[in-house]
Amino acid sequence: MTMDQTFPAIADLKARARRRIPHFVWEYLDSATGTEATPRRNRAALDAVLFRPSVLHGEFTPDLGTTMMGRKYPLPFGIAPLGMSGLIWPGAEQMLARLGAERGIPYTLSTVATQLPEDVGPHAGDQGWFQLYPPRDPVIRADMLARAKASGFHTLVLTVDVPVASRRERQTRGGLKQPPRLTPRLMWQAAQCPAWLMGIRRTGMPRLRLMEGYSTHTGTTASNEHVGYMLRTSPDWTYLDELRAAWDGKLVVKGVLDPADVPRLETAGADAIWVSNHAGRQFDGAPASVTVLPAIRAATALPVLFDSGIEGGLDVMRALALGADFVMLGRAFHYGLGAAGAKGAGHVVDILRADMVSNMGQIGARRLSDLKDRLL
Ligand SMILES: Cc1cc2nc3c(=O)[nH]c(=O)nc-3n(C[C@H](O)[C@H](O)[C@H](O)COP(=O)(O)O)c2cc1C
User: Among residues 274, 73, 57, which one has the least CA distance to residue 159?
Assistant: First the structure.
């Protein structure tokens, strides 16, 4: 059986991953907040974006290449940051960084990853982006930026949609604590997932290594509350100005949903705007990201990135047609890892590409810039 026969869609990877990842970790990966209406809203809004099928347009192979922030990409999608990635699948950060380098697509490392920028950056080659949950202490911030840069991360992503901790009720019910501890109940769940457990034996229990280093600096352990304190999750406009002055690479602002914020982001010197509702993990009253995308596109000439609930190549096309320049996926790559390790994550790229080739054939779109003209 080929990977494509076993896992024709990302949904197949998800179903397999669910059986191979311990329940408490799955609840961390898969949950949103509140009644989880926002992820449903993302799905419904994506499904509502339709194209006009095309007939008698002859044979062609669509060109999926694009240019963004001055770089050429063979495919219009990349890997979004997930905190504690190495808990979801042991070794995830390095595996995904290597995938980015191999396929020529960006990989974003989270501030709250389980591996250090120094240990991940070299694997990402020229594709490393670093996501910042903004440290309060300017000394820590300067050090983090310098380390990210020295490790090869050339693009900084400031996440702004976590102004307060969200409740994530399902995750709480699941029992994951920070730092993760295997209570007898969680140990029992882990025992059902031997591949995951073997990986964890190899990597050690995942910890927020980067934050832990700074935590020694202040003499406390990296508990959730402490990491929450060290990272000023609710930065303000002054913080963005300071960050702009401190970072000479590309700066992307992630988690924008309101076109009214765009002019100010432009003035502050953002190089790109990342439309996202964090997959409904932060606020259950948020609009579907794809619903606000056209207004944000209309408000700026900057590159627009998009994420939130992309489940296949057709969804990538929908976001591009509505004005995104590039699409990022977070969970899908982790479903791939959970289902079949690094090979599974690579298969996500193959599924997305195959989906796009097939669906662009259906609508007669030869290149990505044709997509908007085929919208119904
Ligand atoms: C388990 C999990 C952890 C995440 N951690 C981060 C993070 O550390 N930093 C960040 O900017 N976004 C984080 N996100 C949000 C993702 O980057 C992305 O915006 C979101 O998952 C939507 O994309 P998706 O539907 O393709 O997963 C996280 C999402 C998930 C599911």
Answer: 274
Q: From 356, 360, 351, select the one nearest 6 (Cα to Cα).
A: 351
pTM, rounded to two decimals: 0.97
DSSP letter string over 315-359?
A: HHHHHHHTT-SEEEESHHHHHHHHHHHHHHHHHHHHHHHHHHHHH
Q: Out of 123, 154, 226, 278, which one is annotated catalytic?
A: 278
Q: How far is the CA of 238 from the centre of ligand 1 (A)?
A: 25
DSSP state of 165: -
What domains sit in the chain, N to C, each tagged with a CATH number? 3-374 (3.20.20.70)
pLDDT at 220: 47
pLDDT at 217 over 60: no
**CB neighbour class for 298 (10 Å; exposed up to 12, middle 13-18, buried from 19):** exposed
Q: Decide whether any atom of ligand 1 lies within 6 Å of the 29 Cβ.
A: yes
Q: Do 32 and 285 meet the contact criterion of CB atoms below 8 Å apart?
A: no
